[in-house]
């Protein structure tokens, strides 16, 4: 079976969990005998291609006919590129982009015939223009490769998936890793919502990373439940989960690791930290990540008077993430809305007791993690305090958590995805 897969990033170029999930899934699919071509807007040449071929869209020339171009152009969306469109940002990028009014506008489609496009390889201020150009090039890429099914990851690639489907007539599977409701709550960006819904409607089958996300897809986007299938994410076991580290402190370390945005609930973590420190002084709290709420969180820590017990590391990736887990005594994921959440699995694999919000997809598959409502900072603080104070609790969570996470491998998830492909081909 051959699959043409569209993504936006691939390790080692990682801005969030999407790249990590794509990497784990492609490795699992390769073991299931699936032959993949993975397309990204910009390929750097250092991507791991042991499981899949990497194709950079910016290396492709659009060579469709004028009729193809005009037909595709009818379906591409151009909007003002505001901050709500950008899923991963450093504080500096956020400030720069939100202070501008960048309009892609109505770009003349005749200028795009027989030409290449340059992509930033990230989530810059011309994001929507890049999404549209990516969709144009997907038409050409689909004609250049042989495949049985198309797989598009997250909203940034849905238009590309639709374009490839129109060019090839092959079935389209879209993979919902998150929705606009997860990123923005009820204050959704209508254009992103429309792209997501369009992708779901055009897809032959829809994969969601949790039943939580599946319910959102069905209830908020009006998608037929019969074509929405849940395949839970997993954790990568390809590298060692343990390392010896010099802690440099006798304090217990409690870690938050993720984007410092509304969706991830960093403010609840800080409020819980304040409550814990009033009862347990020998603790240090670490917030690892970047995002539009970072400056606000720093100010809140200062106002609460706990800055001497709090560290902000900035964005971590690769070996630094594993190093942070090795330093941690407790990991907390207080997400307001988390479609899945791979980081708790990575923490548990590193023998770190984990506290997660009930409003997360990963809560569906974990029994040996403490689950609290994201807004219940008292319960969160009690859970942190209990693990720090009572070593027997730590031993129990490590023992049973290790067994549990060991069963959540990408090989199993990949087998289910392959079955989705087989079903899509027969529709």
Question: Describe it for me?
Answer:
The chain contains 15 helices and 13 strands. By secondary structure, it is an alpha/beta fold. The chain has 2 domains: 250 residues, 3-Layer(aba) Sandwich (Rossmann fold), CATH 3.40.50.2000; 155 residues, Rossmann fold, CATH 3.40.50. It has a 7-stranded parallel β-sheet, with helices on both faces. Strands 10-9-8-11-12-13 form a 6-stranded parallel β-sheet, sandwiched between helices. Helix 1 links the parallel strand 1 and strand 2. Helix 5 runs parallel beside helix 7, helix 9 runs parallel beside helix 10 and helix 9 packs across helix 13. The two termini are 16 Å apart. About 9% of the residues have low confidence.
Determine the structural class based on helices, strands and strand pairing.
Answer: alpha/beta
Order of helices and strands: EHEEHHHEHEHHEHEEHEHEHEHEEHHH
Unreliably modeled segments: 77-113
Q: Given the C-alpha coordinates, what overall shape results?
A: elongated
CATH third-level topology of the largest domain: Rossmann fold
Tell me the total number of β-strands: 13
Mean pLDDT across all amino acids: 87
Q: What percent of residues adopt helix (DSSP H or I)?
A: 40-55%
For the CA atoms, what is the radius of gyration? Answer: 22 Å
In order across it, which strands form the biggest sheet?
3-2-1-4-5-6-7
The CATH class label of the largest domain is: Alpha Beta
CATH homologous superfamily descriptor of the largest domain: Glycogen Phosphorylase B
- In whole angstroms, how far apart are the ends? 16 Å
State the helix count.
15
The number of domains: 2
The appropriate CATH architecture of the largest domain is 3-Layer(aba) Sandwich
How much β-strand is present in the residues? 5-15%
